[in-house]
Amino acid sequence: MQDKFVDMVSAKVEVDLPLSSFQPRPALTTAITAVEKPKFPAIDYHNHLDSTEPREVLGIMDRCGLERVVNITMKTGQDALDMMDRFHRASPERFSSIGWMDWSDVTSADFVQKTLDRIQRMMDHGAVGIKFWKDFGLTVRDDDGKLLRIDDERFAPIFAACGEWKLPVMFHTADPTAFFQPIDAYNERYEELAAHPEWGFQDVPVTKRELIEQRNRVIARHPDVTFVGAHCAECSEDLQWLGKQLDALPNLMVDISARTPELGRQPYSARKFFLKYADRIVFGTDLLPEDEMYRLYFRFLETADEYFEYPSHASRQGRWNICGIFLPDDVLRKVYRENALKLLKR
Known about the structure:
The chain is 39% helix and 11% strand.
């Protein structure tokens, strides 16, 4: 005769409810702390405003206590310069711009000089940095169709010039670990990747680890350049490894944009990380400006609230919630504002 308790704890069932229709409502009763504005004025160092209206963004900034937003334009050429001018004209004291690396003519013999000329023009229009996106190392290829390595010495003059110009370089290298894994039932970000299958890199001929190591070699070769690793330098799933990189690379800083989902589900480790590397972490969001989006970021950084929704895009990043890390005032000042000001001064 089967034991009733064994029956109870071993029972399984096959369900036909579509995953996209499963929207559970937590039964937990937890503290809800409303944070309308950050404790200290904040600078959003990582956002993409090209599709927005500057005056509307300024209204959100006023309501949410944002001192400045840095627009990383995703345009190139004259379009990029026009976009920078558009936001700087709207409010030069509250908008800054970071330029976008243009690989359109990477196979031309004078590519490096063209790039230096482009960066100088962007600086003439107020650019405070240049961003190298994840296509560098993942999809940009040479004449032979071979992936270009991030640490290819041909590009060294570009980084050397940024050092001379005191121009910070942002790297978005690789992506979350799940993006390099099969998009299947074992992938914790299955729904996000199902909505964006083009974000999957399980078939590329280079590993995430290799990409990070290529990037780090560039950072080590150019100690006079301040580098910013976007999205926790794409190592938010392994803060111990990220800490080792920061220890080895004193000219590397990181922003937290779009990584509260990872940081907030390991709040003990995340809090220790913020306390240890308070001088190296920059506030950023990487999400279209909205009141609630910013307030979720503030809640994560400032409160000890448990198990609440993280700021994200429509497809979300995984089926979990986050906890706050209740940072002390001295750390909040640095993360919200002071560290970004160091990057904005040229």
